[in-house]
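Homework-ish question, so no full write-ups if that breaks the rules, but can someone show me the predicted structure for this set?
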Amino acid sequence: MPKETLYLKLERKVQVQQDEVYLKDLGKFTCRDDKILNRIRAMKILTFQPEKDGGRRVVSVLHLIRLLTEEYPGLDIQNIGETEVVVERVCTPRYKNARQVFKICFVCAICFFGAAFTIMTFHNDISIIKVFDRIYELVAGQKPEGATVLEISYSIGLAVGIIVFFNHIGGRRITRDPTPIEVEMRMYEDQVNNALAETSDREGKTLEVN
Amino acid sequence: MGRQIFLGILGVSAGVLVSAGVFTVLLSVGLVPRFAGKTHTGRHIFLYEEMIVLGTLAGDFLSIFVREKSAGLQEMARLGPVVRAAAPTALSLFGLFAGIFVGCLALAIAEMLDSIPILTRRIGFRHGLGLMVLAVALGKLAGSLLYFIFGIYQTVL
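A: Not a homework solution, just the prediction itself:
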């Protein structure tokens, strides 16, 4: 019988809804032998103990390889994914709506007032009114009275610039690209997960071979 | 007429470039992802972006059309009691949220420059990072209060 090869591709981070974590929760697997594949997918890896582990564990691929080779000594294992996977136990929150809405409103308020404040202080910093007055005088040859075309067009330009930059208006995308904040969000998530895996490793809490 | 059109083109170009510049700075420090991550509301990022757009436009109108403000103020003064009753609440809300934003922005910029990791490595301490952050926060609070109470802002007027 030829040696079977199991390919596993671990995720960087997974979230589980129940206390028992099975191998199939941790990533994707492929093997020519469907019987082995189904058996190993149902292997139990760890059980969460909410009071002890704080609902988050990091599992090293070496731990999985040891478990697998104990069960199938002749199995050849190839990991093509991450070497550690962050497992998070998430509870489906009961009081989701009110609290969620409150948080969303809070962040919205920070973004709205913060952005308003930032642009006002920026305009103040660069003395934009003086600059506009001078430019208007240079071009039109007289002192401005009331709002000038320069100020109105500047505001339009500012709006166009932000909308093009953020790539959406009124909840609809202009092109299919992800928006800059979505890109930033993914990068931030990656960094957080890397930091979690590293910290757990340093504190010796990773589920690892000794 | 030609001059007005020229001024219009000038204004639009200035606006587009300013928004690109200002928002690159705001975004590269990654504030909004952090807010969304902390509150676990990553799905509503679109909404947060829209709020940034609306907030910027509101601030723009308030700080650009200053010559028009006298009319608006007279209008508000006519409403009198209502405005006076609502003003403290509105102002404290604005101040609070703008303060949170600026505070996060200031520390996020410091962090982007790796100042905290470098400092902790140089002076070689392992514990007390939380205390250090608290000290920075208290220092900012003290500085901000001093600035307004003792009129340090007069140095730039």
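Now go work out the reasoning yourself. Hint: Chain B touches chain A through 66 residues (CB under 8 Å).
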